[in-house]
């Protein structure tokens, strides 16, 4: 007989593990990846591979030589950060910039806080914002979607639909004049528009989101509150003046909203724990997104909105506790 | 459509242009002036408010508290029984006496300094040190089961008797080491027991941290020489011995050997009173299980039995 | 279908022994009967070494209010009264009896005939339960007579019988409900009389449809009793969750079920109450599930209290070679055994054998703040937070976060994908907070 093991109860444990969850999330990103590979071709594949490889590489270097602790690059979290970072930069971004973004994501946003689970801000978003501020020109040159392009550079670039609207409105054009220049909504849903590598196809992202919901990697609260509040706020603005403000559906299916609401805002580490906390957080993200998109300097506000709300998460966790059993007496 | 493209790609440079043009204009002087005046006046107002608040809420304290606190080590270890060095300083000044007050990390020197500074008197205290009274190493008390879970002594103590099976033996998860603020303890990886280094200030944090009260503050002894029973198991001899080779089996031989009544024997366990012990070295050889340890003595004339090297303080 | 609303997990049920009928285990050669098999003050031995005792004879008397009598489960000679290692390896006082024959104390009805007529008055019932040393058989082992005495100013209107058996693997209550349903129903009627309540509900999870059917078919003879199927969810067998599930009443934090007019008893306790009241038989044997994936024949045994666990495992086909962990009780709340020879006590509902590959905790990773522990905590606590606070010795903060509401159901540790020892740390926190609170009361 073996030496008996003694431990506190319980003695059965769920099959779920950190790496299973992480690779499950990666799996759910496959539809979005396929869409972007279709529209942006080889360039998108290169950016994704570079980001994943460099994220894992930097995590290894830091854990092995700086922290001198256990190396956990295969738990999947670095892979996710890499994939998500790749998904929110333009497909034609020079690869060395992708590497720098990965370094910032892993080195600055994740490892400085103590590694997996301890970071305050979503690493991929920090990397993106860093790139956006450091290399504004490159980060605003979005390739135009084609089919199976094998070109890596000199691709035709153009603005995202959001930027078109923002710029047009700023120039005094009416929304109704700008919209015809933008692809049909059905095309937008599929992903046939200018944008970052993985954010273009709302349908693919929603598919991944449903998979994650079924697998319980995410809960419905944050995406619902986020998307819902964006829809409501944009709807209110649109009702006030449809010549200046674009309709709410447009906000939902363009830009990084879907990717942000389903993958970025729901990041377990940087989102609140309790149900009401998640809802408040989602609404906050939605509110800030609309404020930045409509009134701010940038055409896209998802990244900033989520990062700002990340900073509020500890406060939200303190303020919104789960309902305790036996807290209020009600007898039915 | 292309016009829009062009507009967008140049958007960033436009903002640049805006700032650029700004600096070129004469407004620059005006802006500088406004900022200097507004920030300067803001600072002045804040300073006035701060000064008034500081005056209003000024706490008048006995200046001697600061003097005493300066002399204390500042480790806030709590070894004196007060919440920290400041609390001890306040207490000393309030009581105006040093009776019953001792700063273990500071020792007699610090107490003497405080005494002279305040014009008080203090009594010399014998230096003390933490002593681990268990030798249930992995070899002496081989593990019978394997523990998994929260690697703290506090929890495993509440869960079961320990891997070695002895209900009073060292669990070896190092709660004491974690509690030490002075880096005076470490775990010996081979034996799985904690080791107290010579820089121990006997603050007593480890004593409180140990759920089994294995660690005791004992007299340091002349030239750091100490003799103590390295076991606190009160089980009957046979039971204790079954779990651990070096347990005190309560045979009482040491009690008979001791001429100074320094060994107290109760509950199948011998205990050496460090105030009475004269370090005569008579008891260690008679212990059949080598449970009595002597430290820092010069090597004795070779004895027939091979005594295990004490795994305690070096 | 009813269940409690917030939290809860659903571990694999693995009720592999559910079709094994209860077998009577032969009396062993010696039994070791601890004097503290219940929550509260240990009983005082009233026999001494060398005394010959009969089965059913009182051998240790529970003198405090929260205590319980202990009876000899076999006939024979008292070999010694000594400290014997219990399941945790700590030594507790126990009475060791060498078995000689199987002679029972006079006045105990050992026949299998069902006695339906209840002749005892409520007061006599409580006294009888006290005398016969009956404790909660679900595992918590709280002395039953204490629960039967409704404090002044409180009124019970429901008796709730816990047939949930939400712990995976265990099947002893399930078998009891199938094989001793009538005894249990009479026992429930007795308890209803003692408490003066008109209504009793038996809560059974719907993974035991045969038990639900069987009891329902007998209900016509027992007015006031009803059966309620419940959705399978752990920890539905916890008092507060069960009341919430059945009646949607929420027991306030820190209070007992009587606060909302309920008294909860286990099905095993009801059978024991029947035997005590109708047959004058003390609690000297109980049904124990012996199960595990590697075990040859997972069984349910009727076992004399004090029988060593090794005898049970032997009867179930012997201990498999690769056994890595033995658990006394269910997999969620049971205690790991340090020794195979520890005795069966009144609270032993099952003996679980885990093969080596299932015996170990998962490797520990960083907390990824997924919030699952907070989502599934049936008490609405935040285990991740409590564990961190307790780990950092911030016990006052633990108290503010209601650590004492934790009932140690183990759902948080079960669900944690990072394998963190959440419950271990919370338990440390609870014991420290308990110390602080007691110090404050002094």
Provide structural commentary.
The complex is a heterotrimer of chains A (332), B (314) and C (442). Helix content of chain A is 59%, strand content 2%. Chain A has 332 residues and is mostly helical. By secondary structure, chain B is an alpha+beta fold. Chain B has two domains: 63-118, 3-methyladenine DNA Glycosylase II, Chain A, domain 3, CATH 1.10.15.40; 128-295, Alpha-Beta Plaits (2-Layer Sandwich), CATH 3.30.70.20. Chain B is 37% helix and 12% strand. Chain B contains twelve helices and nine strands. In chain B, β7 and β8 (269-272) form a beta hairpin. Chain C is of the alpha/beta class. Chain C has two domains: 1-26 and 115-360, NADH-ubiquinone oxidoreductase 51kDa subunit (Rossmann fold); 372-441, no CATH class. In chain C, the strands form four sheets. In chain C, strands 1-14-13-17-15-16 form a six-stranded mixed β-sheet. A four-stranded antiparallel β-sheet of chain C has the order 2-8-7-4, with no helix packed on it. In chain C, strands 11-10-9-12 form a four-stranded parallel β-sheet, sandwiched between helices. In chain C, α5 links the parallel β10 (199-205) and β11. In chain C, α1 (122-131) packs across α4 (181-195). The longest helix of chain C is centred in the C-terminal third of the chain and has 20 residues, at 422-441. Chains A and C meet through β1 and α1 of A and α6, β15, β16, α12 and α13 of C. β1 (4-7) of chain A pairs parallel with β2 (145-148) of chain B, so a sheet runs across the interface.
Structure summary:
Chain A is an all-alpha fold and 332 residues long. Helices cover 59% and strands 2% of the residues of chain A.
Task: Summarize the SSE layout with pairings.
The complex is a heterotrimer of chains A (332), B (314) and C (442).
Chain A: E1 4-7, H1 18-28, H2 30-40, H3 42-66, H4 77-87, H5 95-110, H6 123-134, H7 136-139, E2 142-143, E3 157-158, H8 161-170, H9 175-178, H10 185-190, H11 202-214, H12 221-240, H13 248-253, H14 257-264, H15 275-295, H16 302-319
Antiparallel strand pairs in A: 2-3
Helix pairs in contact in A: 1-4, 1-11, 2-3, 2-11, 3-4, 3-5, 4-5, 4-6, 5-6, 6-16, 11-14, 12-14, 12-15, 15-16
Chain B: H1 2-9, H2 11-24, H3 27-56, H4 63-71, H5 85-95, H6 107-118, E1 128-132, E2 145-148, H7 153-159, H8 175-179, E3 185-188, E4 193-196, H9 205-209, E5 215-219, E6 226-229, H10 237-243, H11 253-257, E7 263-266, E8 269-272, H12 283-286, E9 292-295
Chain C: E1 22-24, E2 30-34, E3 44-45, E4 52-53, E5 58-61, E6 70-71, E7 76-85, E8 91-99, H1 122-131, H2 144-148, E9 158-162, H3 172-179, H4 181-195, E10 199-205, H5 209-218, E11 225-230, H6 239-247, E12 262-266, H7 267-279, E13 285-292, E14 299-304, H8 309-315, E15 323-328, E16 335-336, E17 350-355, H9 372-376, H10 383-391, H11 395-400, H12 411-415, H13 422-441
Parallel strand pairs in C: 1-14, 9-10, 9-12, 10-11, 13-17
Antiparallel strand pairs in C: 2-8, 3-5, 4-7, 5-6, 7-8, 13-14, 15-16, 15-17
Helix pairs in contact in C: 1-4, 3-5, 4-7, 10-13
């Amino acid at each position: 007989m073996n030496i008996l093991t003694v431990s506190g109860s319980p003695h059965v444990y769920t099959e779920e593990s950190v790496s299973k969850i992480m690779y499950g999330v990666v799996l759910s990103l496959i539809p979005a990846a396929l869409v972007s590979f279709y529209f942006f071709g080889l360039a998108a594949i290169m950016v994704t591979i570079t980001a994943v490889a460099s994220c894992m590489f930097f995590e290894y270097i830091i854990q092995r030589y700086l922290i001198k602790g256990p190396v956990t690059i295969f738990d999947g979290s670095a892979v996710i950060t890499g994939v998500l970072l790749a998904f929110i930069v333009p497909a034609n971004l020079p690869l060395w910039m992708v590497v720098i973004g990965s370094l910032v994501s892993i080195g600055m946003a994740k490892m400085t806080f103590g590694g997996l689970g301890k970071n305050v801000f979503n690493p991929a978003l920090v990397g993106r914002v860093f790139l956006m501020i450091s290399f504004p020109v490159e980060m605003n040159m979005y390739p135009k979607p084609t089919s199976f392009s094998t070109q890596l550079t000199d691709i035709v670039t153009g603005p995202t639909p959001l930027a078109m609207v923002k710029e047009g409105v700023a120039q005094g054009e009416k929304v109704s004049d700008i919209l015809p220049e933008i692809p049909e909504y059905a095309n937008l849903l599929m992903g046939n528009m200018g944008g970052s590598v993985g954010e273009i196809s709302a349908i693919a992202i929603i598919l991944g989101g449903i998979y994650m919901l079924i697998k319980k990697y995410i809960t419905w609260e944050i995406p619902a509150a986020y998307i819902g509040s964006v829809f409501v706020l944009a709807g209110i603005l649109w009702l006030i003046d449809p010549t200046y403000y674009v309709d709410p559906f447009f906000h939902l299916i363009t830009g990084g909203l879907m990717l942000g609401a389903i993958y970025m805002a729901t990041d377990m580490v940087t989102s609140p724990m309790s149900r009401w906390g998640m809802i408040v957080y989602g609404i906050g993200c939605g509110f800030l997104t609309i404020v930045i998109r409509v009134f701010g300097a940038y055409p896209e506000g998802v990244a900033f909105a989520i990062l700002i709300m990340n900073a509020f998460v500890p406060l939200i966790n303190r303020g919104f506790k789960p309902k305790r059993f036996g807290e209020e007496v009600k007898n039915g | 459509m292309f016009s829009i493209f062009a507009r967008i790609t140049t958007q960033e440079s436009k903002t640049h242009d805006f700032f650029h043009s700004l600096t070129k204009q004469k407004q620059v002087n005006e802006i500088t002036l406004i900022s200097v005046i507004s920030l300067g006046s803001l600072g002045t107002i804040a300073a006035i408010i701060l000064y008034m608040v500081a005056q209003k809420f000024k706490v008048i304290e006995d200046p001697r508290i600061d003097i005493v606190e300066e002399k204390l080590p500042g480790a806030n270890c709590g070894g004196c029984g007060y919440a920290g060095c400041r609390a001890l300083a306040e207490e000393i000044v309030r009581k105006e006496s040093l009776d019953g007050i001792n700063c273990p990390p500071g020792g007699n020197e610090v107490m003497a300094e405080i005494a002279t500074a305040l014009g008080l008197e203090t009594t010399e205290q014998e230096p003390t040190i933490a002593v681990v009274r268990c030798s249930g190493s992995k070899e002496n008390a081989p593990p019978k089961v394997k523990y998994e879970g929260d690697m703290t002594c506090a929890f495993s103590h509440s869960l079961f008797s320990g891997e070695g099976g002895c209900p009073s033996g060292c669990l070896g998860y190092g709660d004491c080491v974690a509690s030490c603020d002075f880096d005076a303890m470490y775990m010996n990886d081979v034996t799985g027991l904690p080791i107290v280094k010579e820089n121990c200030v006997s603050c007593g944090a480890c004593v409180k941290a140990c759920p089994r009260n294995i660690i005791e503050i004992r007299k340091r002894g002349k030239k750091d020489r100490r003799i103590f029973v390295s076991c606190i198991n009160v089980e009957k001899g046979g039971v204790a011995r079954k779990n651990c080779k070096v347990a005190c089996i309560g045979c009482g031989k040491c009690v008979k050997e001791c001429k100074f009544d320094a060994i107290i024997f109760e509950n199948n366990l011998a205990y050496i009173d460090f105030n009475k012990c004269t370090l005569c070295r008579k008891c260690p050889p008679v212990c059949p299980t080598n449970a009595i340890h002597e430290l820092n003595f010069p090597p004795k004339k070779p004895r027939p039995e091979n005594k295990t090297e004490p795994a305690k303080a070096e | 279908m009813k269940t409690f609303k917030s939290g809860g997990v659903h571990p694999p049920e693995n009720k592999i022994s559910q079709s094994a009928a209860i077998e009577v285990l032969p009396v062993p050669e010696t039994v070791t009967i601890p004097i503290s098999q219940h929550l509260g003050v240990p009983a005082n031995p009233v026999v001494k070494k060398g005394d010959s005792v009969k089965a059913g004879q009182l051998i240790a008397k529970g003198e405090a209010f929260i205590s319980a009598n202990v009876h000899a489960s076999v006939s024979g000679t008292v070999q010694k009264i000594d400290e014997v290692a219990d399941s945790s390896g700590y030594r507790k006082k126990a009475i060791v009896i060498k078995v000689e024959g199987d002679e029972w104390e006079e006045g105990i009805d050992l026949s299998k005939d069902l006695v339906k007529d209840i002749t005892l008055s409520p007061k006599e019932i409580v006294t009888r339960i006290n005398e016969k040393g009956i404790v909660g058989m679900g595992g918590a082992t709280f002395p039953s007579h204490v629960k039967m005495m409704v404090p002044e100013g409180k009124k019970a209107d429901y008796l709730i019988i816990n047939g949930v058996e939400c712990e995976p693997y265990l099947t002893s209550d399930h078998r009891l409900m199938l094989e001793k349903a009538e005894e249990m129903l009479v026992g429930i009627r007795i308890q209803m009389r003692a408490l003066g309540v008109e209504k009793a509900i038996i809560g059974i999870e719907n993974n035991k449809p045969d038990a639900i059917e069987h009891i329902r078919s007998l209900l016509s003879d027992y007015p006031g009793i009803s059966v309620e199927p419940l959705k399978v969810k752990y920890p539905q067998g916890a008092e507060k969750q069960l009341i919430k599930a059945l009646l949607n009443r929420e027991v306030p934090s820190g209070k007992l079920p009587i606060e909302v007019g309920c008294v909860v008893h286990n099905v095993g306790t009801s059978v024991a109450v029947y035997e005590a009241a109708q047959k004058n038989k003390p609690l000297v044997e109980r049904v124990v599930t012996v199960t595990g994936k590697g075990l040859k024949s997972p069984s349910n045994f009727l076992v004399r209290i004090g029988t060593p666990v090794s005898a049970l495992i032997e009867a179930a086909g012997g201990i498999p070679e690769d056994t890595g962990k033995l658990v006394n009780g269910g997999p969620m709340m049971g205690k790991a055994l340090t020794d195979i020879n520890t005795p069966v006590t009144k609270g032993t509902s099952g003996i679980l054998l885990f093969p080596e590959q299932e015996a170990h905790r998962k490797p520990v990773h960083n907390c990824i703040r997924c919030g699952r522990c907070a989502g599934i905590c049936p008490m609405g606590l935040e285990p991740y937070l409590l564990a961190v606070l307790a780990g950092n010795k911030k016990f006052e903060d633990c108290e503010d976060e209601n650590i004492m509401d934790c009932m140690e159901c183990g759902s948080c540790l079960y669900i944690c994908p990072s394998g963190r020892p959440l419950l271990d740390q919370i338990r440390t926190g609870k014991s420290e907070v308990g110390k602080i609170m007691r110090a404050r009361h002094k």
